[in-house]
Amino acid sequence: MMSQSVLHDWRDPVSPRSLALWLLSTSAPAPLSAGTLIGRAAIFGIEPAAVRVALGRLVREGMAQQPERGVYALGPAAAALHAKARSWTLVEANVRPWTGEWIVVLTHPLGRTDRSRLQRRERALRLTGFAHAGAGTWVRADNLRRTAAELRDELGGLGLEEEAPLLTGCIAEPAQDRSYRVLWPVDALEQGYRHWRDEMAASEARVEHMATREAARETYLLGQSVLRAINSDPLLPAELVDVDLRGRMVEAMKRYNAMALGHWGSIA
Q: pTM score, two decimals?
C-alpha cells in the first residue's frame, strides 16, 4: 500500500528554506528584498544568517534567482512545483467522472541506480496521485481532466523522465482491478479531510484574539499543512473515496487562506 503521511503536527518548526520558498511564491512574480524575507522569518524565530544561507542554496539550485543585488524571486527550477502548489483551488475542477479505466506509468526501463533521479521520479508520481503497484508499475484512476500530453508535461516538470512509458485508458482484469483499488490509504485520507477542517475551524476562533504577528505565524503553519495535504492528495474518484468530504476541506481552506493572507498583508 502507498505510504503517505496524511496527519502530522502542524506546529512543528518551519525551515528557513520552506519559508523562503513560500514567501517568494506568494509574492510572485514580484521579487522580495532580503530585508523583507529576514523580517518575516523573524516571526518564526529564524535568524538572519539562516535565511541568507537558505537563499544562497536556493539560488544555486535554481529554485530562486537574484534579479538584482539583495533582491530575490522564484527561479526557473521552482516553476513546476510553484504551478502545482498554486493549483490547489482548482483540484475538484481537475477531475471528471471515472469510467473504471486506469493510467499506468512503467518505470522499470529507467533503472534505480541513480538515487537522486529515483527520488525525483517517485516524488513526481506521488504528487500526481500514482501508487506503486509493484514491479516498476505505477497506477492511478484515469479521472483527470488532462490529456495524456498535459499529464506527461506535468510529470516531466516534477521530475519524471520523458522516456517513461505512460498508458491511458487501461482496463485491468478483475483481479488486477481489485488489487489496484486498495493501493491508497482511503481511511487515512478521509480522516485527514475531517482533521484539517476541524483544525482550521479551531484556529479561526483562536486568531480572532491574537496579535497580527502571532496570527500570521499560526495561519502560515496550519495553512501550509493543509495545502500539503491538498497538493499531495491522489484525487481519487467517488468510487474509491468520499469526494464530498474532500471538497468541503478544500472550500474550508479557501476561506482560511483568505483570512490568513489578510494577516500577512498587515505586516510591513
A: 0.83
